[in-house]
Design brief:
The protein is 43% helix and 8% strand. α5 links the parallel β2 and β3. α4 packs parallel to α5. The protein starts with a helix and ends with a helix.
Length: 155
């Protein structure tokens, strides 16, 4: 809720926030999401992560009047597909499930992508912010951006 309120404060005052774009307006064409760490410490949250993530995608699109906005999700970098267990496995599977190519949520085909970030992580975990490793952040950001461009071009 705080996140939505902060975004609305900026967008509702767009011309004051960005006077150099006065009169141009804006269009929301996509959202990025790289979260899930705190949910891995709570089994009930991890078990509902997929349901909550689906709800988040739908809510963002509705709340910001952007029904066609693309959505890119990045997985937790420390979680490897082959060895994931417990809550981390539940969250990884949930994040991969919303990918439009997974077939699990047909409504996300062509408008939602998931970036598997384990190969991009340079060590550390999400709870330690990947030990502040800038390369991890750059690589994940680049991969998310490339996924978004792919979704936007695939109109």
């Amino acid at each position: 809720d705080d996140c939505f309120q902060a975004a609305h404060e900026v967008l509702d005052n767009f011309e004051q926030q960005f006077p150099h774009w006065k009169g141009r307006g804006y269009e929301i064409t996509g959202f990025g999401w790289w979260q899930g760490d705190k949910d891995r410490y709570n089994t009930a949250h991890a078990q509902r992560y997929e349901q909550n993530l689906v709800h988040l995608i739908q809510t963002l699109r509705r709340e910001f009047k952007a029904p066609n906005a693309k959505f890119v999700c990045a997985t937790l970098g420390q979680t490897e597909r082959e060895t994931a267990e417990g809550n981390e496995k539940l969250i990884l599977e949930a994040q991969l499930a919303v990918d439009g190519t997974s077939g699990k949520h047909p409504e996300f085909k062509g408008n939602t992508a998931t970036v598997y970030t384990h190969p991009l992580s340079q060590g550390g975990a999400s709870n330690s912010h990947y030990n502040g490793n800038a390369q991890t952040y750059m690589d994940v950001g680049t991969a998310m951006g490339e996924a978004m461009i792919h979704l936007l071009k695939a109109k």
